[in-house]
Write a structure and sequence with these properties.
Helices cover 47% and strands 17% of the residues. By secondary structure, it is of the alpha/beta class. The chain has one domain: Hexapeptide repeat proteins (UDP N-Acetylglucosamine Acyltransferase, domain 1), CATH 2.160.10.10. It is globular, with a radius of gyration of 22 Å.
């Protein structure tokens, strides 16, 4: 059974078909949950007289329609964002410059995409499809479990990379009144822990790792097989001792 599930999840076609059935199950659950609210809205209308099943199907179709919206939204938003970012390259751009204005328009659209689309498709093949359409380079066997990916047109993800839940991959910063855009390159086999924060110029080597809640400053390079972590909460004196340790 375990081998069957493993093959099912690794195959893109079977994984997507499975995802569709899973999302249909989600639609059924939330359709049922929405019935009390819908009954209140339609109270007094003689629609329910012998037509309860029909009414449930109507609500179910509403949630199926929402899933269809996510799919088309991922594709269309990806194309729109790609068009808006054509010609934008890594660099430093002052506020008020043409590039900054163009990026600002893109950024507004992307915030809508993050909250309306990506939050519901993370961990699914559709988020990888969206990233590729929007300009990101995404390798094979990649798993992305975060919606917080910004400036994907500057992102390169190698084969078999894992991006943990709520990881923040951000290819832009503001410093001294300037917009700074820089690539983020995740090498083959990289693991980005949950709630890690990556900034422009980050490069990770093969089979490297970024620990949970770890913040990487701009232009951080991680060598092959290296792991960076943020120190957990502990006594300040112990932290000082550790940082002074020469070993």
């Amino acid at each position: 059974m375990r081998n069957f599930i493993d093959r099912l999840l690794r195959n893109p076609v079977s994984f997507e078909l499975t995802s569709i059935f899973v999302y249909l199950f989600y639609c059924a659950v939330f359709a049922a949950a929405a019935i009390p609210s819908a009954l209140l809205i339609f109270w007094g209308v003689r629609f329910l007289d012998g037509r309860l099943l029909l009414f449930f199907l109507f609500i179910f179709i509403c949630f199926v329609s929402f899933y269809i919206f996510l799919v088309f939204g991922a594709v269309l938003a990806g194309f729109a964002e790609r068009l808006l970012t054509l010609g934008i390259k890594p660099g430093v751009y002052p506020v008020g410059s043409p590039v900054f204005f163009k990026w600002l328009v893109y950024s507004g659209l992307h915030l809508w995409t993050v909250n309306l689309i990506l939050n519901f498709i993370r961990g699914n093949n559709w988020i990888k499809i969206y990233l590729r359409i929007s300009g990101a380079k995404v390798g094979k066997g990649v798993f992305v479990n975060s919606k917080d990916i910004y400036d994907g047109y500057l992102l390169e993800i190698g084969d078999h990379v894992l991006v943990g839940g709520e990881a923040f991959i951000n290819c832009h910063l503001f410093e001294n009144g300037n917009l700074i855009l820089g690539k983020i390159i995740l090498g083959e086999g990289t693991v980005v822990g949950a709630k890690a924060y990556l900034t422009p110029g980050t490069f990770t080597g093969k089979k490297s790792a970024v620990g949970m809640n770890t913040y990487l400053r701009r232009n951080t390079d991680i060598s092959d097989g290296e792991m960076l972590i943020t120190m957990p909460g502990m006594n300040i004196r112990e932290i000082i001792k550790l940082t002074r340790n020469k070993k």
